[in-house]
Amino acid sequence: MKSFLKNSVLVCLMVPFFINAQINKPSLSPKIVKELQVGLATVRLEYGQPSAGDRQIFGGLIPYQKLWRTGANSSTKISIDRDIQLAKKDIPAGSYGLYSIPGENDWTIVIHKNTKLWGAGNYDQTNDLLRFKVPALKLKDKIETLSIYFENFHANGGDLVIAWEYTKVVIPLFVNSDPILFKEIEEKINHSTGEIKAQTYFDAAQFYYHKNKDLDKAAEWFEKAIAMKPNAFWYKYYRAELAYHVKDYQIAKEKVTTSLNQAKSSKSGDYGYIAKCKLLLEKMNTKN
Fold it and tell me: What percent of the chain stands above pLDDT 90?
């Protein structure tokens, strides 16, 4: 019994020592977690973000034609809350490991069903959801730190980008949101039995405008929104953009001028619309 108590006391004394012996140092490849809206999909990215330093990355630290975790430490993950397409390949809603096989001229992107792996350890190709190739673009300026992000957003998605050192790959992400939004507009405006708010008219008009669909209807909805909220200068700006698009320069100039004056006198700020209005006016002046 005495021996047991002695050993127990010894263990208790050693535990704080081991805890204190650990050094709380910063990671050289910090974990990046970002969540954003891409089209109608919510996308979450998780990856370790290493820097190049004086190392050759692709074809050196990361060999060509070899599976890569597309980051550092744990495998890179992508999660989506609805069905999408990546590079025109169907991806069901869910969470996946995002691996890649870099090459000099193109990369193979691997969407993997196992998200619990540490890097590429214990990787099993039979758990791939799919693979596809994308071109490898050469960059003039060096990107020191691995970056995975989205750019070129549009109503139906955007481009997923992986960029590091002198290489960039672009993976188009598409969300088939048009049928959903057209149906919602139909229900909330055309088949509505209650009051329709100005913002509803504006959102519907803006969507139709961006889709280049029934622009007369879009103009009508913009006008209804403006009539309901005459101080919303941003409504007038987009009405001016639409008018400019259909070459109705008189309406365009009238609306953008009013929008500019209201933006200048706004006590809560112009939200960047002064610059937008001036740019649109400059474009109009080149038409004269």
Answer: 81
Domains and CATH numbers, the chain: 31-174 (no CATH), 178-285 (1.25.40.10)
- 7 pLDDT higher than 80: no
Task: From 249, 185, 240, select the one nearest 211 (Cα to Cα).
Answer: 185
* The three-state (H, E, C) secondary structure of the chain, written as one string: CHHHHHHHHHHHHHHHHHHHHCCCCCCCCCEEEEEEEECCEEEEEEEECCECCCCCCECCCECCCCCECCCEEEEEEEEECCCEEECCEEECCEEEEEEEECCCCEEEEEEECCCCCCCCCCCCHHHEEEEEEEEEEEEEEEEEEEEEEEEEEECCEEEEEEEEEEEEEEEEEECCCHHHHHHHHHHHHHCCCCCCCHHHHHHHHHHHHHHCCCHHHHHHHHHHHHHHCCCCHHHHHHHHHHHHHCCCHHHHHHHHHHHHHHHHHCCCCCCCHHHHHHHHHHHHHCCC
Q: Give CA–CA dist 29/72, Å, rounded.
A: 6
- Which among 71, 105, 85 is positioned nearest to 38, based on CA atoms? 85
Structure tokens at 272: 């960047």
Burial of residue 164 (number of CB atoms within 10 Å: 0-12, 13-18, 19+): buried
> For residue 30, what pLDDT is reported?
86
- For residue 109, give the nearest of 121, 97, 101 by alpha carbon: 101
How many angstroms separate the CA atoms of 50 and 195, rounded?
53
Determine the Cα–Cα distance for residues 68 and 282; give it in Å rounded to an integer.
Answer: 49
184 pLDDT band, cuts 50/70/90, is: very high
| Cβ neighbours of residue 272 closer than 8 Å, sequence gap 6 or more | none
Pair of tokens at residue 210: 């961006």
